[in-house]
Q: What sequence folds into this?
């Protein structure tokens, strides 16, 4: 039985819908927010004896704008209450054996976290390999299967193979692990492996709210909650997950939008590979394709299928299904500006400091909200790559002949858009314009547990603290000091530990460069995927694979100072 889980911005969105202040995201004082960020950094686990560089930068940016006393408890009371539900830490929920037995904890607890919209991670190889998941599904007998797709082939823990392929993982609490390998830029099967593993599963609550904020019936009618609360949460920066209660499939969104009348929400997710049920677990199909989806509160699920590695459609369809919508409201507005880059709310200094402190970011343009794949700071200006978007006809549906819709947006108001056929080198047009943008930051605590120099020597914290945090399930973000006042901020898509060293692989990056005429960053032409392996030994290895083609540029090795930030 096949499980196809039932479970751009071009011209289709009305940018006039505006959020209103809510209890989950009130209008705030930005000096108090800076103080609260400092307080959270100091309390985050694991603790460190010295304040990280990013904390100092945040304090400096706050003090330059206000005479606020950071130790004044009265000033922090309201914000501490606001953040009180955003301090949940990662927990080990269950350890499953090769035959699916529970060695520690309970599968039922993991299922409960999953259907509450919580974040899930897992580790393999006795706690030396870690990754986040892209989607999950219940498979019966309280088993869960997850897809972890963000991995490019390696030779050793901190080096790439010369002939790169995607290394897709389907991992189940039954112990089953299916590895499917496909060439980067070509529809070439590089082999399958079906095996079993001991697996450790981690979860972290996304917010105090364990119930969906809205549920729609198959017809789009209301079953629970209030769609206007969902829409307002989205416009206030909240991230969202959707659950199909019919089969237990759950996913997040790379971009989400609110209709002009504020009565509908639609989210898109392109990172899923076709799979099928085998007994009590799930495996990838033999001839895999990308399964991109748009979920809407009208009950409509739009699906577009494309071969991995080539521009060949495997079909486009839609259906109606019930959905449950969960919000993560641990976000707050940090900075907004008009299309000329002039401040309209918040503080650019605060925003830059928060990004350097490892905070995740969400970007809002009109009624369209997206979480960037990576960030770059140059001369005090922030740029973000927005890569998880496929072209749409309308608010609810994909185009028939889809293309990637990639953007670099900056705090100068500059927006560059490039379009390339999925699985092809064909360019579908580029454009540049200026837009008003709002920038939201995550209010969860992140802690800089390690800083390394370009030679790999420790300048702050310890490698042991970093490994301890990773083995407790923490996520990892890197602030890479590329040049004076130039920083690349990337998320570790997967992490390997060997001989007390850590290597973080990041694959969601398109080649870019410094812009001109006041534009901070722009895409390079032709575009290449930039896959990096950043190690605590001081090396950052990069391989460059042409978008839509199985050809590459020579690999590079750079030596950069890096801040290793966990949360």
A:
């Amino acid at each position: 039985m096949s499980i196809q889980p039932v479970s751009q911005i071009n011209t289709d969105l009305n940018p006039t819908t505006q959020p209103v202040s809510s209890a989950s995201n009130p209008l705030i004082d930005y000096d108090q927010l800076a103080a609260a960020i400092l307080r959270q950094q100091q309390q985050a686990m694991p603790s460190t004896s010295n304040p990280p560089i990013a904390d100092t930068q945040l304090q400096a940016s706050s003090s330059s704008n206000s005479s606020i006393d950071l130790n004044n408890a009265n000033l922090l009371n309201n914000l501490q209450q606001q953040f009180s539900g955003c301090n949940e830490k990662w927990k080990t929920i269950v350890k499953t054996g090769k035959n699916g037995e529970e060695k520690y904890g309970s599968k039922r607890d993991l299922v409960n976290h999953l259907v509450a919209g919580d974040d899930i991670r897992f580790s393999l190889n006795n706690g030396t390999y870690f990754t986040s998941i892209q989607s999950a599904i219940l498979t019966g007998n309280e088993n869960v299967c997850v897809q972890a797709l963000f991995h490019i082939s390696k030779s050793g823990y901190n080096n790439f193979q010369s002939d790169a392929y995607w290394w897709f993982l389907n991992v189940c609490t039954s112990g089953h692990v299916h590895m499917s390998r496909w060439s980067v830029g070509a529809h070439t099967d590089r082999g399958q492996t079906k095996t079993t593993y001991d697996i450790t599963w981690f979860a972290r609550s996304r917010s105090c709210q364990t119930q969906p904020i809205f549920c729609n019936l198959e017809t789009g009618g209301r079953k629970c909650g209030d769609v206007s609360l969902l829409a307002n949460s989205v416009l206030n920066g909240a991230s969202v997950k959707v659950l199909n209660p019919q089969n237990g499939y759950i996913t997040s969104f790379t971009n989400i939008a609110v209709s002009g009348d504020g009565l509908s929400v639609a989210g898109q997710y392109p990172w899923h590979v076709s799979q099928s049920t085998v007994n009590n677990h799930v495996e990838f199909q033999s001839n895999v394709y990308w399964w991109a989806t748009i979920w809407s509160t009208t009950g409509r699920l739009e699906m577009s299928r494309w071969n991995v590695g080539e521009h060949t459609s495997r079909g486009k369809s839609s259906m109606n299904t019930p959905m449950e919508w969960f919000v993560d409201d641990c976000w707050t507005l940090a900075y907004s500006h008009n299309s000329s880059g002039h401040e309209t709310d918040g503080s650019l200094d605060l925003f830059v400091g928060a990004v350097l402190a490892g905070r995740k970011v969400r970007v809002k343009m009109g009624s369209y909200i997206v979480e960037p794949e990576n960030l770059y700071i140059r001369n005090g200006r922030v740029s973000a790559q927005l890569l998880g978007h496929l072209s749409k006809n309308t608010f609810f549906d994909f185009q028939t002949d889809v293309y990637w819709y990639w953007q670099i947006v900056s705090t100068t108001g500059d927006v560059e858009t490039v379009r390339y056929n999925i699985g092809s080198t064909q360019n579908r047009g580029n454009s540049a314009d200026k837009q008003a943008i709002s920038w939201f930051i995550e209010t969860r605590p992140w802690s800089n547990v390690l800083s390394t120099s370009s030679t790999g020597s420790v300048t702050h914290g310890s490698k042991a603290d970093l490994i301890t945090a990773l083995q407790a399930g923490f996520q990892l973000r890197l602030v890479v000091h590329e040049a004076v006042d130039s920083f690349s901020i990337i998320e570790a898509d997967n992490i390997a530990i060997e001989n007390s060293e850590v290597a973080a692989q990041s694959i969601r990056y398109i080649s870019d460069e410094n812009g001109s005429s006041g534009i901070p960053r722009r895409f390079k032409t032709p575009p290449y995927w930039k896959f990096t392996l950043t190690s605590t030994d001081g090396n950052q290895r990069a391989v460059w694979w042409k978008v839509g083609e199985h050809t590459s540029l020579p690999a590079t090795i750079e030596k950069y100072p890096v801040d290793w930030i966990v949360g």
In short: Residues 403 and 421 are 4 Å apart (CA to CA). Confidence is low (pLDDT under 50) at residues 1-28, 45-81. The first strand starts at residue 2 and ends at 3.
